[in-house]
TrEMBL record, chains A, B:
This is Ketosteroid isomerase. The lineage of its organism: Bacteria, Bacillati, Bacillota, Bacilli, Bacillales. Keywords: Isomerase. It comes from Listeria floridensis FSL S10-1187. One of its GO terms (molecular function) is isomerase activity. It comes from the Bacteria. Gene3D superfamilies: 3.10.450.50. Residues 8-119 form the SnoaL-like domain.
C-alpha cells in the first residue's frame, strides 16, 4: 500500500510539473487511452488527443502562468484501481486569477489504474463532488 | 453512455434495497473481489467477507432501520471504469439518527468497474472528499 501511494504521488507530482512546463505530449502519457478530463462542469475531454488540446486551452485561459499544487491527499486502493482525493491549489498570475470564473482551491477526485506496471490517470476531475452543485 | 448510466443506476438502486432489507450475501455480489468500503473515516473493509461484516455492523449501529436514498447523481465514464458522484441520504429511525456520530446527508464517490459484462462496485466511499477534513 505504502509503495503504491508513493508511486502515485510521484506520478501526480510529475504531471503537475509537466502542466506548469506546458509539456502536454509528455503529460498525456500519464493518462489511459480512454481517460476523461473534466475541463469544467459539463465539459469533458476524452482520450489523449482531446486532453492535450484541453490542457493547452486551460494554460492559455490562465495566461500561461498555471501551477497546480497538491495539498492534503488521501488514497483508497482497490487492487489495480485507486481513488485519490486531493486538495488542489491552482496557482496562476494575479491577472489570470482575477479573470478566472473557477475556484483556485479545489477538492479533486482522480482515478488511477495500473496498466503494464504503470499507474495512469483514468479520470481527472479536479472539481470533485462540487459537480453536484 | 446513456445505457451505462442506466445500468449503474439500477445496480445502485438494487444495492440500496438490499442494504435496507439486510440481504448482505446478495449485496456483496455487486462488489468486485478486491473492493473497498470506507466504513468510516480511516476504517476500510476490503473484499466481500469484510464488506459483508461491515454492513451488518452498520445496520446494527443504525438500529436495523437504515435506508439509503440517492439524490442528485453525476457519472464520469472512462471505458470500463466509472466515477459516480452522488448525493446520498441515510435514513434511519429517529433514535438511530439521534445517536449517530455521522452525517446522514453525504456526497459520495463510488467507483464502478465492468467485469464480465456486469457493473460492480470497486470503491464505495460514501464520505466523498470529506475524508480530507
Amino acid at each position: 500500500m505504502e509503495q503504491i501511494m508513493k508511486e502515485i504521488k510521484q506520478v501526480i507530482a510529475s504531471c503537475d510539473q509537466l502542466i506548469q512546463d506546458e509539456k502536454f505530449n509528455e503529460l498525456v502519457e500519464y493518462y489511459t487511452e480512454d481517460a476523461v478530463l473534466v475541463v469544467k462542469p459539463g465539459i469533458e475531454a476524452r482520450g489523449k488527443a482531446e486532453i492535450k488540446t484541453a490542457f493547452a486551452k486551460i494554460a492559455q485561459y490562465f495566461d500561461n502562468s498555471i501551477k497546480p499544487v497538491e495539498g492534503e491527499m488521501k488514497m483508497i486502493i482497490a487492487g489495480d484501481t485507486v481513488l485519490v482525493l486531493a486538495q488542489t491549489f491552482i496557482e496562476a498570475s494575479e491577472k489570470a486569477v482575477k479573470q478566472s470564473d473557477f475556484s483556485m482551491e479545489r477538492r479533486a477526485t482522480y482515478i488511477f489504474k495500473q496498466v503494464d506496471h504503470n499507474w495512469l490517470c483514468a479520470i481527472d476531475n479536479s472539481y470533485g463532488t462540487s459537480l453536484l452543485d
